[in-house]
Structure to design on (427 residues):
């Protein structure tokens, strides 16, 4: 990354004095950062991450409404390339260890000093520099000198070519490191990636295969190779592990390509295959997904999202909104759980909702809950706590905060105002 490039950062802390001090007293540019927003709670922080797509989120681990751990989990769903640094009291260390899988780049103990935070920001800057350099400068592997990779290419591209059965396919997977032993329950997926120029034309360098391997290694076993303008990646892991990592990778690869390389990335993803012998069919599915729709549009396309027709476009968005109408009162409703109900990937569902409503999933869900709350406040005698629970909130204070933010007045104020208006009408 160019030394003149400033990494963007969002700060989140419910201690107003500390947050203001961090935002105003730190010479962010001196440390290679640009402050783009600050928040006093996890909900606002998450919305800032969606809006600004920062390189770094600096957040307290204990905040009202959404904890730092839960915030890290939700940020990973929408912006896996955002690094997260925790600010925490000493007693929270074991608590913070729960979030180790959520891209935590630093853990800082309170109380903080300007010098101490500045020193840590220099270290974080170096780590992000290294991440970006590794992705950008990955060394191309010459597959012609690796007989195992050549054999895998034949297995994937040519429907076995010189291989003659499932036993040979399994041997190939083992030799390439995709399969650890014959008794392991391993599944496979093929991902095909291309980089696009500004005009939408394909321009994928062979070195992008190594960049893909670097990202895949964070989550799964995988082998990538370059073939005729595209990178083919074979991913392997346990069934649940593979499915979860696929969604993260499908977001992270385009985000890293755009941020680090300045290039759009288009990806096709196959269904999950249960044996190495099915990799050629998986490759054909990934290619079919890649070639669907607008081929100049960046992002990932899962073959499972293309069939049947009800999984696509405005019809999917309509089904998603109908599902929100039915399940908004569930406090555990999330993009992942909703996509599971509709049998599509979270990536695909998120993109459809944003395209057809102009809002993110989170904002769409909150708006639905606020509309329901307004109706209950106007037409029922439920207590505020009961209204909150019927709208998917287990914390009445969190509900009241959201309500005032979106409706401009507190639930009690609205109820008093509506009651006064009805009394005036009856006079």
């Amino acid at each position: 990354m160019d030394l003149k490039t400033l990494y963007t950062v969002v700060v989140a802390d419910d201690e107003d004095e500390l947050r203001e001090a961090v935002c105003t007293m730190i010479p962010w540019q001196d440390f290679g950062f640009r402050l783009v927003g600050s928040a006093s709670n996890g909900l606002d922080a998450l919305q800032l991450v969606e809006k600004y797509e920062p390189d770094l989120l600096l957040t307290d681990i204990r905040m009202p409404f959404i904890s730092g751990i839960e915030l890290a989990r939700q940020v990973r769903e929408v912006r896996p390339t955002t690094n997260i640094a925790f600010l925490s009291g000493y007693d929270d260390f074991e608590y913070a260890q729960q979030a180790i899988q959520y891209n935590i780049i630093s853990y800082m103990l309170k109380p903080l000093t300007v010098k101490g935070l500045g020193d840590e920001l220099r270290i974080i800057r170096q780590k992000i520099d290294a991440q970006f350099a590794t992705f950008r400068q990955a060394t191309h592997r010459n597959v012609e000198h690796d007989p195992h990779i050549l054999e895998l290419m034949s297995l994937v591209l040519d429907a076995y070519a010189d291989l003659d059965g499932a036993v040979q396919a399994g041997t190939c997977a083992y030799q390439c490191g995709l399969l650890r032993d014959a008794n392991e329950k391993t599944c496979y997926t093929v991902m095909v990636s291309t980089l696009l120029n500004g005009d939408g034309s394909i321009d994928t360098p062979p070195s992008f295969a190594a960049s893909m391997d670097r990202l895949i290694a964070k989550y799964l076993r995988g082998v990538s190779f370059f073939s005729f303008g595209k990178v083919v990646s074979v991913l392997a892991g346990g069934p649940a592990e593979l499915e979860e990592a696929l969604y993260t990778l499908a977001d992270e690869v385009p985000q890293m390509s755009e941020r680090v390389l300045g290039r759009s990335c288009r990806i096709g993803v196959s269904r999950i295959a249960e044996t190495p012998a099915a990799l050629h069919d998986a490759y054909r599915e990934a290619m079919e997904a890649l070639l669907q729709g607008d081929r100049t549009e960046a992002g990932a396309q899962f073959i499972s999202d293309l069939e049947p027709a009800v999984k696509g476009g405005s019809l999917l968005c309509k089904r998603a909104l109908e599902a929100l109408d039915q399940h908004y009162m569930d406090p555990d409703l999330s993009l992942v759980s909703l996509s599971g109900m509709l049998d599509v990937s979270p990536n695909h569902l998120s993109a459809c909702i944003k395209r057809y409503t102009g809002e993110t999933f989170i904002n769409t869900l909150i708006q639905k809950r606020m509309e329901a709350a307004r109706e209950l406040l106007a037409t029922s005698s439920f207590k505020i706590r009961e209204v909150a629970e019927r709208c998917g909130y287990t914390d009445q204070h969190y509900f009241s905060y959201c309500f005032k933010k979106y409706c401009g007045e507190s639930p009690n104020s609205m109820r008093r105002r509506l009651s006064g208006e009805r009394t005036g009408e009856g006079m």
Remarks:
- The domain at 368-426 is CATH 1.10.10.60 (Arc Repressor Mutant, subunit A).
- The first strand starts at residue 7 and ends at 12.
- Residues 75 and 250 are 15 Å apart (CA to CA).
